[in-house]
Amino acid sequence: MVSKPSCVLAFDLGASSGRAIVGRLDSEAGIVTIEEIHRFSNDPVKVGNHLHWDILRLFHELKQGILQMKHLGYTDIESLAIDSWAVDFGLLAANGELLGNPYHYRDHQTDHVMDKVFDLVGREELYAKTGLQFLQFNSIFQLYALKQRNPELLQRADTFLMIPDLLRYFLTGEKHSEYTNSTTTQLLNATTKTWDTELLEQLGLPGELLLKPVSSGSRVGVLTKEICDELDVPSIPVIAVGEHDTASAVVAVPALEEDFAFLSCGTWSLLGTETLAPVLSEQALAWNFTNEGGVYGTNRLLKNIMGLWLVQECKRTWDKEGKNISFAELVKLAEQVKPFQCFIDPDDDMFLNPEHMPKQIQQYCRETEQVVPLTEGEIVRCMLESLALKYRFILERTEQLSGKKYPGLHIVGGGIQNELLCQFTSNATQREVWAGPVEGSALGNLVVQWISLGYIANLREARKLIRNSFPVKTYFPEDGAGWQEAYATFSQVASRLTVK
């Protein structure tokens, strides 16, 4: 008798869009298939001087995804799970109600807050405790900004829940903090893997708001009766997967080797490797690398890079100006212009949340005495070449910190649809690039559910399964001399590179 495929549902929320994806596992054939059943935009909302996430709209879209699941005949879903971006959170009152819309990580409330925290806890001590890259929007700085600006809100709060924890709470009525996302707060001790109570006391932050993290793969409730009645669906079990989308994306890297380098490429680029333990050396601190928790006890040594946010923001600006050029058309325009005219450091603070990204790109080039890109194609080419060169810079530092040498780079995520960037990355690193799968975070979400349900034994088996199920495109390096010269120029104009 042929066994029936197992079906589970993944909600994968990115910084610009979200999707509901049904995964089907045919254990006998050793194949996974997926179907996107619902997609929606995820747009921050500016109210006054602050930027927020529209969290109730996101919850509404989750319910629409569950409805679509039912309408498409998926009546045998065994579980569901959510992954999302990191650092942002909501606060619940004692009665379980949400205290306001969560702030967006690009909100300016955290401007200059890092220095105030460093006055209380030095950089070296904070890194030794948490092992996390210093980014002004980390949860620790958001909480400290709230303490300074709106202490009444913290006083009213009873529970701190990160975005997927919060949405899961809306679905199940149960409050849990998942481990991989908790590690991105810069409040979890990298060695003990528990909340650092001493650090919380030093900053005067209310540690009682924080729930003990549960391990990835834990079963953390079922859909509430209210949800089931509203949507006319059964009470589906809910699993806490690697709820940081990068943790899920790394699960889905189809690597056959034990040691590999990865790039999760989307709105953000996250480049690094897996290690057995956090790397907390002086060099890791000096280079501002991060150590984030992975599923099943792994450690992700990586660096956050600004990523395709640069292109997305340029397109948004051009759309407002009535130009309405598609991403595919922008890439074609970039292909047609002269290479290596100018470069930026993608991680310069001026690109975090500018009013007009194209003008900001031009301003950087002007300040560094380069050719100033004028056309859309020139601006996009500048960004894509700079991203590829930054990937080389971070890959080489990852090798030095890990003590490993990587023959190539695995790229997963929506960014692999930009084939020009993939080729540029191979050229810049002078290594093979293996691109795929596109839906990295969603696939990592799905396979951890299947591990939890007992259909897949471990991560190695999961990665082999993904490798057998989805195509991987290989890019080979070209024009080594030209890209080597470009890298030398890039290193000079990205003058702040050594401290980023």
Secondary structure layout:
Elements: E1 6-13, E2 17-26, E3 31-41, E4 45-47, E5 50-52, H1 55-71, E6 77-83, E7 89-92, H2 113-120, H3 123-130, H4 139-149, H5 151-156, E8 159-162, H6 163-172, E9 177-178, H7 179-182, H8 197-203, E10 213-214, E11 218-222, H9 225-231, E12 237-240, H10 245-251, E13 261-265, E14 269-275, H11 282-286, E15 290-293, E16 299-305, H12 309-320, H13 327-335, H14 357-367, H15 376-402, E17 408-412, H16 419-429, E18 432-435, H17 440-453, H18 459-469, E19 473-475, H19 480-493
Parallel strand pairs: 1-6, 9-10, 13-17, 17-18
Antiparallel strand pairs: 1-2, 2-3, 4-5, 7-8, 11-12, 13-14, 14-16, 15-16, 18-19
Helix pairs in contact: 10-17, 13-15, 15-16
Q: Would you kindly provide a written description of the structure presented here, covering whatever features stand out?
A:
With 500 residues, this protein is α+β, with helices and mostly antiparallel strands. The chain has 19 helices and 19 strands. It has helices spanning 55-71, 113-120, 123-130, 139-149, 151-156, 163-172, 179-182, 197-203, 225-231, 245-251, 282-286, 309-320, 327-335, 357-367, 376-402, 419-429, 440-453, 459-469, 480-493, and strands spanning 6-13, 17-26, 31-41, 45-47, 50-52, 77-83, 89-92, 159-162, 177-178, 213-214, 218-222, 237-240, 261-265, 269-275, 290-293, 299-305, 408-412, 432-435, 473-475. Strands 15-16-14-13-17-18-19 form a 7-stranded mixed beta sheet, with helices on both faces. Strands 3-2-1-6 form a 4-stranded mixed beta sheet. Helix 15 (376-402) crosses helix 16 (419-429). The chain is globular, with a radius of gyration of 22 Å. The mean pLDDT is 96.
